[in-house]
TrEMBL record, chain A:
One of its GO terms (biological process) is mitochondrial translation. Its main location: mitochondrion. It comes from Lentithecium fluviatile CBS 122367. Its EC number is 6.3.5.-. Allows the formation of correctly charged Gln-tRNA(Gln) through the transamidation of misacylated Glu-tRNA(Gln) in the mitochondria. The reaction takes place in the presence of glutamine and ATP through an activated gamma-phospho-Glu-tRNA(Gln). Residues 59-68 have a biased composition (Basic and acidic residues). This is Glutamyl-tRNA(Gln) amidotransferase subunit B, mitochondrial.
From TrEMBL, chain B:
Residues 126-142 have a biased composition (Polar residues). Its EC number is 6.3.5.7. Belongs to the amidase family. GatA subfamily. One of its GO terms (molecular function) is ATP binding. Keywords: ATP-binding, Ligase, Nucleotide-binding, Protein biosynthesis. Transmembrane segments: none annotated. It catalyses: L-glutamyl-tRNA(Gln) + L-glutamine + ATP + H2O = L-glutaminyl-tRNA(Gln) + L-glutamate + ADP + phosphate + H(+). Residues 23-32 have a biased composition (Gly residues). Residues 1-46, 120-142 are annotated as: Disordered. This is glutaminyl-tRNA synthase (glutamine-hydrolyzing). GO terms for biological process: glutaminyl-tRNAGln biosynthesis via transamidation; mitochondrial translation. It comes from Lentithecium fluviatile CBS 122367.
Amino acid sequence: MLVSTCRTALAVLSRRPYICQSCLQRARQLPLTSAVRPKPTSARALQSDTKPPPPNDDTPFRKLLKDAAKKKRKEDRASSGSPKVSHCDRDARLSKWELTVGIEIHAELNTARKLFSQAATSVNEEPNSHVALFDVAFPGSQPHFQGETLIPALRAALALNCDIQYKSSFDRKHYFYQDQPAGYQITQYYEPFARDGSITLYPHDFPAGASPANGPVTIGIKQVQMEQDTAKTVHQPPSTHLLDFNRVSHPLIEIITLPQIHHPTTAAVCVRKIQSLLKAVNSVTAGMEMGGLRADVNVSVRERSGQSTEQSQSYHGVTGLGQRTEIKNLASVKAVEDAIIAERDRQIELLENGGVVEGETRGWTLGSKTTRRLRGKEGEIDYRYMPDPDIAPVIVGRDLVDHLRDTLPILSDDRVSTLVDDKDYKLTSKDASTLLSLDDGERLDYYYDVVKHLQTAFADQPAILARTGKAAGNWVLMELGSLLKTEDWSETRVPSDQLASIIAHVLRKQITGRTAKLLLSTKFKGDARAVEQIIADEDMLLRPLSRQEYLDLAQSLLEEKADMVKVIVEKQQHKKVKWFVGQMMARSAEGTVEPGPAEAVLRELLHLPPADEQ
Amino acid sequence: MDEFGMGSHNTHSCFGPTKVMPRGGGGGGGEAEGGEIRSAGGSSGGSAVAVATEQCWAALGTDTGGSVRLPAAYTGVVGFKPSYGLLSRWGVIAYANSLDTVGILGSDVERVEGVFDTLDTYDPQDPTSLPPSTRSRLASRTKTSSSLKIGIPLDYSISSLDPAVRTTWLHSLAALQARGHTLHPVRLPTTQHALSAYYVIAPAEASSNLAKYDGVRYGSRAAGVDGTPESVLFAKTRDHGLGPEVQRRILLGAFSLSAQAIDNYFIQAQKVRRLVQQDFDRVFAAPNRLVVGEQEPADEGVDVLLCPTAPVIAPLLEEVENQDPIHAYMNDVFTVPASLAGLPAISVPASIQGDDAGAAGRSAGMQIIAQYGDDRLVLDVAKQLVEAT
């Protein structure tokens, strides 16, 4: 059964980029195919009775979001009078029922070639231009495992603290669908390459105030496995679907968490954190919005009272769970959260009314109120997992794993904990994570430089030294940040040593805060003079008033505004002293009068008790 | 050829069965002459007939469970199945990847050996092609053939063995003994389970490999609308495009891989397969170079095995055309064990001895099997057997 005449052609083609039209032309002319000579159409077509699948990857995302928001506004207006479930009811239900969620994430790996052929991976190339014979399941073609695709997968698994298995193997998962050319997907069912990892969510990972627990939440990762992606289907209304095989066999990793998530926000944050972790180790470049990362969630509820019914389910060691449903293909972090909330409410509603949750597969579209059923138990597919006999097991050496672990980039959690805990920095965790996320890490590098300059300046003054980290954080994030507004970051606008100089002057009380801000903005606008120069030129140094000068100024003011004095002293409206303070400051050169000493002097002159005793 | 390589009599083909016409009847004519049309064996029956009728010098086939050796036996030519992984499978339409082996048919052993010498090379396109390092390890073991130990697998002496075949077997053994080799009876107890294991594993792999034939990217498709909400998009195309024996094996294979059945069928069959291979390793003097562990040659142990290729001589075509499939599968009982273990095996024609009038002038296939990698030894003993009988 040899396709011998095509053999040389195939051998030659396998060294070229994969555009097979010439081979197809030749094949059409061979006697082998002359018995059934097809019409020379450029597209192969199939007629079908089936309904087209719901359009989930063709309408632009922006449009979906807008439609969803419009719909929500309309519904809110309509139902504003009678909320179906009041907040009290909802909280009561949630205290009775506990939610459990497990997540499966599929992420497209950042590799040059596909998983089992030498065709190049692609994102939005011309359709069917990066397709090897094996990708399109041409008879007689065989898989060739591309070892380099393992490297980003290993990095991702190490970032998730997994154990890398010495031996792993590939299996075939069988199902029929037009986007699966071979009728099976090659995945790792029996022996995945990584197991037993974890991911920790810190309070700073959550949006402000939304963290359900007080401390960090650790979620176990059951396994990470490699598998092939499917073809892309493009729906051309009304009834045509075009298949693009560029994406077939693009390497994916599937990350399966344990069902240890008990809050919708936790699930959403988990997905977001895994996505940023994968990007940080350069395993994945396309995020959810590009379709490079997809999430499926498994949702179940159970009563908190802990009665384990006969029907309680368990999954990989986590026991006592309710029946779960699976929600597939969630394409954004928001969708994850909304879909889980909707499904949880649906299940609770069902169970409270005496119903039974069925193990179904459900779908979610943006803007829906509930999930919708895609497939019931009777439509459940038996995948008939079979080890692939053409693919040898993958053996990963310890030396490779150790090397990758040593060269992994520092992950954001470690950086944040350094910035928070280390005495050199002592930032809040919120500030730390903001600093990390700005400008691809350049802002962080700039911050480190500023701190280094300050530490040199105050090496012999431990009291001030302790405040340098926090002060620098404030100036780099808030002050400089507000000047930048929407402009792109550039570290040369205000060189780090210059900012350090400004901060040092403030810390030494040589200039007031206001002067410092002015200095910063002057430098930002492009003044080429050094900070010290500007201070000297503009005479910005704080000349603190001597006590006598304070007394003189205060005295003259009190005499001038005698009626005010009378109000304060006789009517005991002591707080109006502040007005005098303000006047003193207004009448002096900017920054020379400090409110604290000024008030103290005024009170002294007015024979009032000091401020803190009132 | 049987469609997709599935069949034992070359009858499952949309082009019609391959027929072996009786000799000396004016060249063809079939039933009218009162001669008997016989089965060519399968599934590479077409290649065997082409060689037997001298239409070509040699031919290629694929041997998954005996598909090259069986038609060689039925048509009276030489059919050789090399060790698994020596000849590249790039381009071979896969039936069962772990069993498929490209085989060679020819009218004598020298021709077969010539073709083998050319094709026996590493091909990087085939991921299961034996790497050069292993090939050189195998080559380092050459056996001089002055006095070999010939094993007689007693478990192949089944009750349904045709007496003519049995007599020919004994005659062949005697002939080799006369040339100075020694005979040793051996036991291969898992032989009786090998056929069942094969007919679980091969259809399982076939159900997987044939899932790609859906008419979407290549091939023809059924006319009109295909696919209904209740079934898959290409159900009609597959129904029309795949023959009944192919459909039978796909369904059988899908069943043995299904969640309910996999432990009892597929997994068990794989375990039996391992036992079959261990049986052979126990019996051969040479160690199996693919198994990590003992590499020392055993003192007891034989060099090759000699047994019939098939339990019967070529049956009449009309008997087998409407035969129950299980009976058809029985033809493979002697060829399947060597396939499961990936061992080199060859079938050479031996003239039928004895006074059985019906079988006079005809031949039965004699099979020589050796340890993994001993392909040259198999060919050498085959040459000696042909000379001696």
